[in-house]
Each structure stands twice: as structure tokens, then as C-alpha cells.
Amino acid sequence: MRRDVAGSRAARPSPSSPSSPSPPVAVSRWNRTASVFTGACVLAVVFLAVLPYWVGGPAEQPLITLLTFIAMASLWNLLAGFSALTSFGQQAYIGLGAYCLYLVALHGVSPFAGVLLAAAGAAVVSLPVSALVLRLSGGYFAVATLVVAAVFQIAATLSPSVGGTTGVSLPGLAGYGDLLREALTYWVTLAVAIASVAGVYLLVRRTFGLDARAVSSDPVAAASSGVRVRRIRLLAYVLAAGGTGAVGALVALQTLYVEPTSVFSVQYSVDMLFMVLVGGIGTIEGPIIGALLLFALQEWLSADGAWYLVIVGGLAVATTLVAPRGIWGLASERLGWTLLPIGYRVRGQDGPGPP
Amino acid sequence: MNWVNAVVQGILLGGQYALIACGLSLAFGVMRIVNLAHGDLAICGAYLGLVLSSALGVPVWVTLPLLLPAAFAAGMALQVLLLGRALRHGVLAPVLVTFGLSVMIENLLQVAATSDPRGLNGGALTLASFSIGTLTVSWLFLAAFLTACAVLSGLQLALSRTSWGRQVRAIADDLDTARLVGINVRPVFAVVAGIAVATAALAGVFIGTIGTFDPLAGTSTLIFAFEAVVIGGIGSLAGTLVGGIALGVTQVVVGEVNQAYAVLAVHLLFLAVLVVRPGGLFTGHQPAREVLRWGALG
Amino acid sequence: MTPDPPLLEIAGLDLFYGDFQALFGVSMSVSRGGVTALVGANGAGKTTLLTAIAGARAPARGTVRYAGTDITAAPPHRRISRGIALVPEGRKLFPSLTVQENIQVGAVAAASDAWPLDRIYDTFPMIARRRRQRAATLSGGEQQAVAIARALAAGPALLLLDEISLGLAPRVVEELYQVLHRLRSAGTTLVIVEQDLRRAMEASDHLVCLLEGRVALAAASSELSRDLVVAAYFGQGDA
């Protein structure tokens, strides 16, 4: 009796029966929880958007901080979580975005609209930078990004046209009353946060997502499967740079002052690392949770800067070793939820496969 | 403008950079770990030197027989307890862990020692110098350079002549096969990590004696060490010395013209090497090929 | 008269690469001083089985017993010091080390000094001349010789060889098999993975055929005909 070699590769070890036609396999990318959650998100966005009208000032400030965190975390996750680019130099683009905003505001553009131009400026500058740093990978890439940030900072310090070591204050805001300025800052921050989360989410759901994760796990295999490795990394790097540039512009809007040491501070990278790692690297929900956590931590420990950082660093280290998938990773395993699904669920003859 | 003097000072300074860099190079070559806390560990060495030499009332050199073994042990502990575990979680985990560690160390040092800049007691060596024609050479600088050369040569000899060195080179070539042929990898990793931290601590002591140091000096130290490794060529000890010298000479020579641009010039040199010859000056080693293979993939 | 206990005994080995199962309940025994040939198509699990014996991968289920002791949980360096050595598929020499250094590295966990450098160079005259050359610069046949020499340096009682004839000219393969013959005469137990069925049957006294991770055939080579082996190899006929 001939044994069908291909058929015997299926799960059952018993060789006797001839292989029967397998039942149809269903592939799904969405689920009911996700629909509910997306609906809730839309409501939340509407709520947040009208917030300045009925709550005003006191609620805006903390939300601005939180929303900025969410944007930063989502963008860093695009790099480190989906594309295996562990950059500790994103502060280069925060500073660059802040200075770009200063420069466009100087030329009469409204600072609020200028955020877009700052993002574009950061993205453009990131192109030649990428030609340098993307030659490296892993830890070497990480330190190279630190060097780039250091270079940007020194360049700013040595440029009298942007205030050198003293820095500059943001022009073009004199015409706005305090209340209006705060509200506009809030809305722009909200817009950037939504754009960052939604942008990364939509991007990762497309082929880019699969390609990027393939590159992360095995670049040689990915390349031999036809994935344009260089292009994926470039796209991730430039998009993250642009988004981070927008965040930098937001920082300038919020503090009204741009000064090299604070705007190029490696502190930003520490925050991004914490939020993404502890929240849940490689998921869309994770960075948001991480941002909430960092916000809470900052509120609670704001008094002692050094201890706060020790704890932040310590939690990041502990999470990598003990719970590498972060809070969301653990939660979604237990609850089986994917609120913002990016994977493929396969239901075959043996029941649901891994998401 | 004494160019010859500047170049000589630069070469001597380069020795220090090579000393801080060789641990980084070794750790990456063998374990494929870039320890982002490496610079901070060097600064810890300086602080430990400060504590010991103040407590014992002696120049910091006398404390070395205590300091170096302690640093070696700390390196082994770091590997066994933290980095070894991190490696099991993938290639990027050590990068994330060591960055978090760097943050912790810098801030714990701030809590313990405040952010005031400190200096180490180098005894008589600090102030002494000698002259050859137009050259003025400080004994301390020369000592740092010679120590670096001694350490690097010693390491190179150990790698090429001893059984341990063969095992290390085999692991650097192919970790899985090294295990298969019977090399017990964990103890080798622990010893390499110990050497890395001990050399970093020694470099830190020189840094602290020649200049000042503070809790946040680790990051710039790391960056210089890293640049020396990349310029010289990942995986080559001789390259690390050459890379360090390239850094030192650039920094001092440019500094003669305009001090504000000295550090920037060093960074730009690094970036230029990255463009023109990304493998560094001494290429062909396996670790370099792995780090740079991204460029080859379409 | 009780027969000698087997040197190597594998029972019910299941081995996974992540979710993929490569070995299904593989059982096998190798008697002391014998030569066992392990054959099968690509992907049948031959290399997986050898690396499991060498200790590079831990099985999910099953046991590996060597000289009566359970070594299932022992890491590779322990197994080498007990007397098992592997010549890996694709040779896997250390390219930046010289020929001599490659061989010396094989001895770090050595079970015995039955194979000092002199004896190794006598057995492999073709590489003796090249002892100070970097391994990467050697020809395929010389590299294979060095790979075998490296495993021998551990003084093994059980030598595992994975596809040593791959990519080599027949004359070179013939030389290597003559060395294997001498090893066998010297008392070393051999397990040879071999694509060339003729060689496998000639050189061995016991033959095991794997098919998709399972043992399809296990018998004394003298009792087997080529057709029987081919049938098991491809999964045809009564299995």
C-alpha cells in the first residue's frame, strides 16, 4: 500500500488511513473585541477633542504630557518593536523638530501649523543620517544613534543663529491669548498622538508589518524571501524620525523655549525605552499602557529626579528579563484579547491557531 | 602652534581611549554584546578608586591590587546574573538591559556621590613631566599610554598563545560549533566580562586622575570607546589601539585650533569612517562581518 | 553468554524545533566497536538525531544512555568528556584558527589522551603539512580531515560523523573512509550519516534508515538488500 509522503506530514502519526480532503481553513484579521474597542476609541477621541470647551485648563496640561508620551512611545515601538532598530538617539529628532519649529515660526508661520513642517524637516534630515547608521545593527546601531544625537546637540550649541548654549524662545505666539494658546497646543498634541498611534497601526497591518517583523527575526531569510530589507528599515527610520520631529515641535510649543541640553536630552530615550518595554514591545496597545504608567510614575515620584530614574531604569531591566512581552503581552495572553489586532488568526481543522 | 607636541599628546591620549575601548571590543567579539553601561562601569572604577584611596589615605595606584580584582568579580557577576540571562531573550535584549543598567548606575552614583566633579589622587605622578626638545610629556599621560599598550599586548598574547585564547577565538568564530566541540562557554563568557569591566575600571582610574569625573561622564566615555572600536575595526585589538590613537590625535590637534570643535571633530571622523570604510581599518573579522551584513542585504 | 551491553542506547526520542517536530519516538542502539550507518532522505532527521546525541539540542521526550549512564540532560562538554564526539555536517571549522588550533580546541574537554597531536598527524598526513595554515584556506577534503581530527582529539570511544562525503571527490572520500576503517580497527565505535547508500552499506555492520523523523528500518547490513533500503528510504512498500 502506497503511503502518501505529503499527506503523512499532517499532524496525525497513524499511517494507515489514506489522507482525506482537509476542511477549509479560515484566516481572520479582526475580531469582535477589536470592533468594540475601536468604537470606544472613536468615542474617546471625540471626548478628548471637545475637552477644552467644557473642562479647560486644568485637565489640558496633564493630558498634553500624557499624549506626548503616547506619541513618543508609539514611534519608538515602530523602530524597536517592529523593525529591530533599537535607537537611543531619537532625541536628535526631538531637538531637530524643536529647532525647526523655531525657524519656521521665525519666518512667520503659525507655530501650530509649523508642527507639520518640523516633522517634514526631521524626516528630510533623517535620510542622510540613515545612510550612515543603518549600515549597523543591534548594539552598534544603538550607540551610533547616540553619536548622531551628540553631533546634533554640539551643532546647536555652536550655532549662534539658534542661540547657541543659551537657546531661544519660541516666537509667533504673542497674538494668542493664554487660554487659546493652551487649547491649540492641546489639540495639536492630540492630533500628533492620534496620527502616531493610528499611523503605526495602519502601517503595521499592511505588508510592511509582516516584512518588518520578518526582518527583525531573521534578516537573511527575509531577504531571500524577497523582502527589501534596506527599504523596510529606511521607511521605519524615516517615519519614526518625522513623527519624533513633530513631538519635538510639541515640546517647543509646550515649554515655549528651545535649549540644547534639555531638547537633546537622552532622557527622552530612557522614557521611550521604559514605556515600550514595560507596556509591551511589538504591540500597538503596549506603548499606550507604558505611557500611562510613566505618567503615573512621574506624578508619584517627581520629587526626587535621581531615584525616579533609577526606578525607571530598573523596571525596564527587570521587564526585559522577567516579562519580555511587557504588561500588555502578559495581559493579552491571559485574556486572549487583541484590541488592535495586527496579526493573522488561522482557524483550521484543529481549532484556532496562534494569533 | 606646536604640531609635533599636539600629535604626541594625541597619541598618548589615544592610549587611554584604547584602554577603555578594549573591553568593549572583546565583549562584543566574543559574546556579541554591546554593553551600553561600559562607560559608566569605567566611571564606577574611578569612584571606587576615590573611595579606596581616601579611606586608605594613599594615591589611587596603591589601591589597584584591591580595585582591579573587585572590578573583575563585578564583571563576572554582571555576566552571570544579568547579561547571560538577557542573551537568552534574543539579540536585542542585552542592548535594552545594558541601557537600563546605564541609567541606573548614573543615577545611583548621583544619589551616592552628588553631581560634583571629582578628581583622583594620583600622587607624585600627576604633576611630573619631562621635556625632549620642544616636547613636554606628562609622566601620567605616558603611563596611561604604556599601560594601555601593555594591557592590549597581554590580551593579544593570551588570545593567540593560550588554550583559553583558542577557546575564546573559536567562540568568536562560531558559538554553536564551539559548544559542540566541548568548549564550556559560560565560564569563558564570565571571564571575558570580568576582563572587560576590569580594563574599564583601570581606564576609569586614569580618566579620573588625568581629568575630573562626575556621575554622568559614562555616556561620553562609552561613545568615545565605541568610536575607537569602530574606527579601528570591530573584533581587532590592534585596531582598537589604532582607533584610539586616531581619536586622540584628532581631538588634540583640532583642539589646538579651536577647543569648542574638538569633540565634534572626533564624532565627524567616526561618521566619515562609517561612510568610507564601515568595517574599520582592520577588517575581515567575523564579528565585523555580522554587524555590517545589513548593508549587503537588498 | 550475555552479549555486551550497547554503548549507546536511544529510547523514544521526540525532538522539536519550536513547533515543528523533527523526531518521533526514535529508538536505536549502537553496540561497542560497531559501525552504524544512518541513512535517509534530506530532512529525515539524521543530523537532528546526531546533534541530539551530541547534546546540542534537548529532546522533549525520551532518553539517551551512554555506557549505561543516562546522559539526556548532559551538556555537550560533559558528553565529550565521557567519550562522545561529533564531526558536524558541513565541517564547521573555526575559520580564523589554524589547522593545529582547530584540533587543539577539540581536546579541551577530552575524554582521554588516546589521540595526541602526533598520532593525529600520522593518521592524516595530508593535513600535517598545513598545520600552521588558517583553516579557511584549506581544500574541502583537507577541511573534512581537520574536522575529523578535531573530533578525534577528544579521544572519543564513540565518534559521530555527519555527511563527510558531501561535496568531495570520490578519491578523497575513499581516503577518508580508509581512515574510518583504521579507526574501527582501533576500537572506536562509529555512527556514520551517509548519503551514498553503497558506501553506507559496505562500511557498516548495522544500518538505520530514517523517514520523516521516524525509524523506518533498522537491521544488520548483511541482511539488507539495496532494494529493501531504498524502499524504506522513500517510504514505499511494507514499512
How many strands, which pairing sense, and closed or not: the largest β-sheet of chain B? 2 strands, antiparallel
- Overall geometry of chain B comes to globular
* Biggest protein-protein contact in the assembly: A-B, 49 and 55 residues
Which range best describes the helical content of chain B: under 10%, 10-25%, 25-40%, 40-55%, 55-70% or over 70%? over 70%
List the helices and strands and how they pair.
The complex is a heterotrimer of chains A (355), B (298) and C (239).
Chain A: E1 26-28, H1 32-54, H2 57-83, H3 91-106, H4 111-133, H5 138-157, E2 168-169, H6 178-205, H7 207-217, H8 219-224, H9 229-255, E3 257-258, H10 260-263, H11 267-279, H12 285-301, H13 305-322, H14 326-335, E4 345-348, E5 351-352
Antiparallel strand pairs in A: 1-4, 2-3, 4-5
Helix pairs in contact in A: 1-6, 2-6, 2-9, 2-11, 2-12, 3-4, 3-5, 3-9, 4-9, 6-9, 11-12, 11-13, 11-14, 12-13, 12-14
Chain B: H1 3-31, H2 38-56, H3 64-87, H4 93-113, E1 129-132, E2 135-138, H5 139-161, H6 163-173, H7 175-180, H8 185-210, H9 217-232, H10 237-257, H11 262-276, H12 286-292
Antiparallel strand pairs in B: 1-2
Chain C: E1 8-17, E2 20-30, E3 35-40, H1 46-54, E4 61-66, E5 69-70, H2 76-82, E6 84-87, H3 99-106, H4 117-123, H5 125-128, H6 140-152, E7 158-162, H7 170-185, E8 189-193, H8 197-203, E9 206-211, E10 214-220, H9 226-234
Helix pairs in contact in C: 3-6
Describe the structure.
With 355 residues, chain A is mostly helical. Helix content of chain A is 68%, strand content 4%. Chain A has 14 helices and five strands. Chain B is an all-alpha fold and 298 residues long. Chain B has one domain (7-115, 137-289): Orthogonal Bundle (ABC transporter involved in vitamin B12 uptake, BtuC). Chain B has twelve helices and two strands; from the N terminus they run ααααββαααααααα. The longest helix of chain B is centred in the first third of the chain and has 29 residues, at 3-31. The radius of gyration of chain B is 19 Å and the shape is globular. Chain C is an alpha/beta fold. Chain C has a single domain, classed as Rossmann fold (3-Layer(aba) Sandwich), CATH 3.40.50. Chain C has nine helices and ten strands. In chain C, the strands form two sheets. Chain C has a six-stranded mixed beta sheet, with helices on both faces. A four-stranded antiparallel beta sheet of chain C has the order 2-1-4-5, with helices on one face. Chain C is globular, with a radius of gyration of 17 Å. The two termini of chain C are 33 Å apart. Chains in contact: A-B, A-C, B-C. At the A-B interface, helix 4, helix 5, helix 8, helix 9 and helix 11 of A face helix 3, helix 4, helix 9 and helix 11 of B.
